[in-house]
Design brief:
The complex is a heterodimer of chains A (250) and B (481).
Chain A: E1 2-11, E2 14-24, E3 29-33, H1 40-48, E4 54-62, E5 65-66, H2 72-78, E6 80-83, H3 95-109, H4 117-131, H5 136-139, H6 148-162, E7 166-170, H7 178-190, E8 197-202, H8 207-210, E9 215-220, E10 223-228, H9 231-239, H10 242-249
Parallel strand pairs in A: 3-8, 3-9, 6-7, 7-8
Antiparallel strand pairs in A: 1-2, 1-4, 4-5, 9-10
Chain B: H1 4-16, H2 34-43, H3 48-62, H4 103-112, H5 116-122, H6 132-147, E1 150-153, H7 154-160, H8 162-165, H9 179-187, E2 190-196, E3 206-207, E4 221-227, E5 232-238, E6 249-250, E7 253-258, E8 263-270, E9 284-293, E10 299-306, E11 311-314, E12 317-320, E13 326-335, E14 340-349, E15 355-365, E16 369-378, E17 386-396, E18 401-410, E19 416-425, H10 428-435, H11 441-452, H12 454-457, H13 462-475
Parallel strand pairs in B: 2-4, 3-5, 4-7, 5-8, 6-9, 7-9, 8-10, 9-11, 9-12, 10-13, 11-14, 12-14, 13-15, 14-16, 15-17, 16-18, 17-19
Antiparallel strand pairs in B: 1-2
Classes of the chains: A alpha/beta (250), B alpha/beta (481).
Chain lengths: 250, 481
């Protein structure tokens, strides 16, 4: 589904990703863990098409399409979704209106008919139910004045609605207390399916107590230096990231 | 100097060349003097008092100087090179087909979904087709007449209801007010008159669109709306479709008068031709709009969406004379390309417990420049007056400019004043966020901008609000990048 090979990317003159490889198959959940500055957010941003990064080598394909030559909206239309670490506020833009525009834009690109207001509301209600969310989010402006927890929940809600094939959760656990974390994780789990892959990017192991990954990768200095099962996360939790330096130095 | 003989010469010479144009529908030669003012009044068959008022205004205008304080830049206007009475153009002088019209303008018409016949009319092409609106208008007039509401051209009103026009015309914006208003008072071509009798709630939104002969009222339009005690009227001016006009200078005057407990809601969507990419050929829009809350608890509310014109110079204002009267100003102004706008409002608090609200949203893109200029004056006797002002500017790109110039004068210590101002840019974060959800960059911009303007759009009548949103999106296409 997603195949990243030898990916190198710069921010300005500084190389952040230094030959990264990653293979994600259908329905798989991959956790990417790493210390601050290892390139976790850069990876999320490069895959979703954010400006400000230049890819100098390597490739990233999504269902056989070259991701890197596509605009961000084209990637979204193909079924890629990024849950933001810091969801952006859009003052005055009603959440429901935003979601409807987004969904219809994606449906249109896929050659599907646009949903009318009634079918859309029905869909929204259904999704809220799955995630155990109340509908107060719908009436407000996108993320404007939301608490940290509300913002993250709204991201998961968007994901539920847009039904991506591959979701990248960029440090979704950051800034959440344990209750909010549980709500968000439950939402993510409810959306797991054999057709939907996920990349869970996180600094801490605790999120993985709730979202059980199939694979865990350790990202350091712009490369994946170790891969394994979920036990690798526990090992990291125990040892911290300090050992990486020693290992890389050796 | 040109005078009556010259006018006659022109008429005669055209006649000699075999034209059969009626004198009433002809065009005066360029230039302005007392004879021209008299000729305008005569051609319109106005009562004597009107001719005298026009002449007084003209004589005063000669002593005035063109204002230079606005933050707009344009070549000096030669007032002697303008023709002050221009009849509808003869078909042979008009563009023959849409092929002769600026393609950018036509693209906009298509995006707005305007039918082809209407496109031709808007672009100033000779059309034979009579719009449905004429028959619609006739039906509307009957309904209005039943309610006792008068809604007609100001020329017609001067003939039919001079006793209703005379006591009010020029009482809110006297001819001495400013250079352009004074010029308008001397040479105004036509405009709209609305009279709502005591206690009547006007049964429909009034719109110039439905007024017969609304077209070609020309560059010096004059509007007068009188709402008697306890009445209500909502008036819509303009049209979302970009309108072209051969007259570059527009100096309109609008006067609103609200008596005790009356309410006037005045909404404008202004989308005059802004000129081509270099700003050539765009309209200069120098307008004086003022409302007088004469009676206690009266209310005047201005809502405007300004997206057109090369230059806009406009400050819809409220004089809050009646105790407990309310003034409101909601504005969205967009400048892009080379457009310039200096706009805002004045809230003059005279009565006790008067209150005013100002919400101004300015959007600049391209090399557009705009200034919000607002005055809030609390007079000595305006016990308990309140004002809330909110001025927000949104910048798109890095070559545009926005300025805020608030003037506040408070002469009564009990006044409560609030002023908020913000300037923001559409951030890359916002754009990326929207795009990562599958929206195109243009949809994202239009969504963010419409969100920014929401408080103002909420004040517009429903259909107008929908059109305004669409207009804004189209105006800002290609503004980012």
């Amino acid at each position: 589904m997603l195949s990243v090979k030898g990916l190198r990317a710069n921010v300005g003159d500084k190389e952040i990703l230094k030959g990264l490889d990653l293979e994600v198959g259908p329905g798989e959940v991959h956790a990417i863990m790493g210390p601050n500055g290892s390139g976790k957010s850069t990876l999320s941003h490069v895959l979703s098409g954010r400006d400000g990064y230049s890819v100098t080598a390597g490739s990233a394909t999504f269902e056989g399409r070259d991701l890197l030559e596509l605009e961000p909206e084209e990637r979204a239309q193909l079924g890629l979704f990024l849950a933001f670490q810091y969801p952006v506020e859009l003052p005055g833009v009603n959440n429901t209106y935003f979601l409807k525009a987004a969904l219809n834009s994606i449906r249109k690109a896929r050659g599907e008919s646009e949903l009318d207001a009634v079918s859309f509301l029905r869909l929204i209600k259904e999704k809220l139910k799955i995630l155990h969310l109340d509908d107060s989010l719908l009436k407000r402006a996108v993320n404007a004045g939301f608490s940290g927890g509300e913002k993250k929940r709204n991201e998961i809600f968007q994901m539920a609605l847009l039904e991506p094939k591959l979701a990248i959760l960029d440090e979704t656990d950051s800034g959440l207390d344990i209750d909010a974390l549980r709500v968000v994780a439950e939402g993510v789990n409810a959306l797991r399916s054999p057709e939907r892959s996920m990349i869970v990017v996180t600094h801490y192991q605790r999120l993985l107590d709730y979202i059980q990954p199939d694979y865990v990768h350790v990202l350091a200095r712009g490369r994946i230096i170790r891969s394994g099962g979920k036990e690798l996360a526990l090992e990291l939790e125990e040892k911290g990231y300090g050992w990486i330096d020693a290992e890389l130095a050796a | 100097m040109t005078g009556a003989p010259a006018v006659e010469d022109i008429v005669k010479s055209e006649y000699e060349h075999g034209f059969t144009t009626e004198i009433e529908s002809d065009t005066l030669p360029p230039g302005l003097d007392e004879e021209v003012v008299r000729a305008i009044s005569k051609r319109k068959g106005e009562p004597e008092f009107m001719t005298e008022q026009r002449l007084k205004a003209y004589r005063h205008w000669l002593t005035m100087r063109e204002p230079e304080w606005a933050a707009v830049d344009y070549p000096r206007i030669d007032f002697q090179s303008i023709s002050y009475y221009s009849a509808p153009k003869r078909p042979e002088d008009m563009p023959k087909s849409l092929d002769e019209i600026d393609p950018a303008l036509l693209e906009t018409y298509n995006k707005l979904g305007i039918p082809i016949e209407e496109q031709k009319a808007l672009a100033g092409i000779a059309v034979d087709a009579v719009f449905d609106s004429v028959s619609v208008a006739t039906t509307f007039r009957a309904t209005l007449a039943e309610a006792g509401v008068i809604f007609c051209s100001i020329s017609e009103a001067l003939h039919e209801y001079p006793e209703l026009v005379k006591p009010y015309l020029g009482t809110v914006v006297p001819y001495t007010d400013n250079f352009y208003a004074c010029l308008n008072a001397a040479v105004f071509s036509d405009g709209t008159f609305v009279y709502v009798p005591k206690g009547v709630r006007c049964p429909m939104e009034l719109s110039t669109y439905f007024r017969i002969n609304a077209r070609n009222t020309g560059q010096f339009e004059r509007t007068l709306i009188v709402a008697e005690a306890g009445s209500y009227v909502s008036y819509l001016e303009g049209c979302t479709a970009p309108q072209r006009d051969e007259n570059q200078l527009h100096a309109a005057v609008v006067e609103l008068i609200a008596m005790e407990d009356a309410e006037i809601k005045y909404s404008t969507v202004q989308n005059w031709y802004p000129g081509d990419a270099q700003g050539v050929g765009g309209i200069y829009n120098f307008v004086t709009k003022r409302g007088d809350c004469r009676g206690a608890r009266s209310k005047i509310s201005w809502t405007q969406v300004e997206t057109g014109s090369a230059i806009t110079w406009k400050y819809p204002s409220c004089i809050l004379r009646g105790d407990g009267s309310i003034g409101e100003f909601y504005s969205v102004a967009v400048t892009k390309g080379r457009q310039q706008a200096d706009t805002g409002t004045k809230m003059i608090h005279i009565g006790k417990n008067t209150s005013s609200t100002i919400v101004s949203k300015g959007i600049s893109a391209g090399e557009g420049s705009q200034t919000y200029r607002g005055l809030v004056r609390i007079g000595q006797r305006a016990e308990g007056a309140r004002n809330h002002t909110q001025c927000d500017s949104l910048l798109i790109g890095d070559r545009c400019a926005a300025n805020t110039v608030p003037y506040i004068e408070v002469k009564n210590p009990s006044a409560k004043m609030e002023h908020e101002a913000t300037t923001s840019k559409i951030s890359d974060d916002q754009l990326f966020y929207c795009r990562s959800r599958g929206l195109t960059e243009e949809d994202a911009v239009s969504m963010i901008v419409n969100g920014f303007c929401k408080e103002v759009f909420n004040e517009l009548p429903m259909e107008f609000a929908v059109e305004a949103q669409k207009l804004l999106s189209i105006s800002l296409e290609g503004a980012v990048g």
